[in-house]
Amino acid sequence: MNSNYNGTSRTAKSSFTSEVTGKVGIAISGELETSAGAMLASIKTKWGVTVSAEITAKLGNTISVDTPKHTTTNARYGVYRLKVVGESYMLHQNCTTSPKHKVVSYSPVKVGWYLWES
Q1: What is the 3-state secondary structure (H, E, C) of the chain?
Q2: What percent of the chain has pLDDT over 70?
């Protein structure tokens, strides 16, 4: 949070600069199981699968506002994210499903300044 107090008898210009670095990502993990049978032998294979992706963003921004006399202008710059929760599972050919896994992701909703005076 940035603050600027104007102790003069006139309105002054306040400038705020902020730099934000954030990460947005998703990770999904699960298992894949296959089996094949023959008259004398059976083969069963199981794989663990993890997929993940991550994006890093660096944003810089400057804002100038008027600060009235004997007032403090406060400013906060940020990336506001939305948390999304869901389930992941596999539907097999025989209409059965794998165990369900919880999936959590965060997506950016709003980027900007929040200003207030005190």
Answers
A1: CEEEEECCCCCEEEEEEEEEEEEEEEEEEEEEEEEEECCCCEEEEEEEEEEEEEEEEEEEEEEEEEECCCEEEEEEEEEEEEEEEEEECCECCCCCECCCEEEEEEEEEEEEEEEEEC
A2: 64
